[in-house]
Design brief:
Elements (H helix, E strand, L loop, with lengths): L2 H4 L5 H9 L4 E5 L3 H9 L4 E4 L3 H4 L11 H13 L5 E5 L9 H13 L5 E3 L7 H9 L4 E6 L5 H4 L9 H17 L3 E5 L3 H10 L4 E4 L7 E4 L1 H4 L17 H17 L11
Parallel strand pairs: 1-2, 1-8, 2-3, 3-4, 4-5, 5-6, 6-7, 7-8
Helix pairs in contact: 3-5, 6-7, 9-10
Amino acid sequence: MSVHSEIKKITTETLRKMKFDKEKITMLTAYDFTTAKMVDAGGVDSILIGDSAANVMAGFETTLPITLDQMIYHTQCVVRGVERALVVADLPFGTYQSNPEKALESAVRMMKEGGAHAVKIEGGKEIEESIRRIINAGIPVCGHLGLTPQSIYQFGTYKVRAKEDAEAEKLIADCKLLEELGCFAIVLEKIPAALAKRASESISIPTIGIGAGAECDGQVLVYQDMVGMNQGFSPKFLRRYLDLYTEITGAVSQYVKDVKSADFPNDKESY
């Protein structure tokens, strides 16, 4: 038996079963082949090609500038490196909000050209028809509620969302609506832990939290943040597992020193 035939691929159904079995779901972002290969080998359940690629890969201040073509490119790169994890790709700002037909067209392109296993879109009741259209076409959808970065100019801040009762009640209602529409999971971003717990208990599909406490059915972090490649970004919810910024800049400095001093390459490293 080959190694490949032993790998059990994670599906949307796997995630639903994990919630039922009370097994926590793990998700990390990846935007390129090499990273995806490492993240997949590390055993993560799902890989998200987030529109956060606009920030960490392209250096933009918000997620708004990234295009569908660029997201499809990043998704293609990731899919080639993955053997096991469920690959979920964000539909970027402006590709689904305006009308359901455009939303479906964007999702179809992400699946056909990008090779994604599912798409993620931000919002609840206000994008109900877009979600319905995409799901009716047989495309799995992951919802995203709470702090929705594509709406940053509407919010005006990246602070915790749904602290007020009205917004909290809307979030619970949106969670139930997304489940009703057929979403397979919902990302909950930067909301009070108690509300995330309530939301998770009110629906039978998994919730995946980022800055939403420990009671969600799973957790997601941006890979570059988790391994410490970004120095200036230190939100309360982030746990750094490595300090790659220091490691990498140190290695580069040593390489520069070795080349300048003619230590590299030595005889063993020459043909």
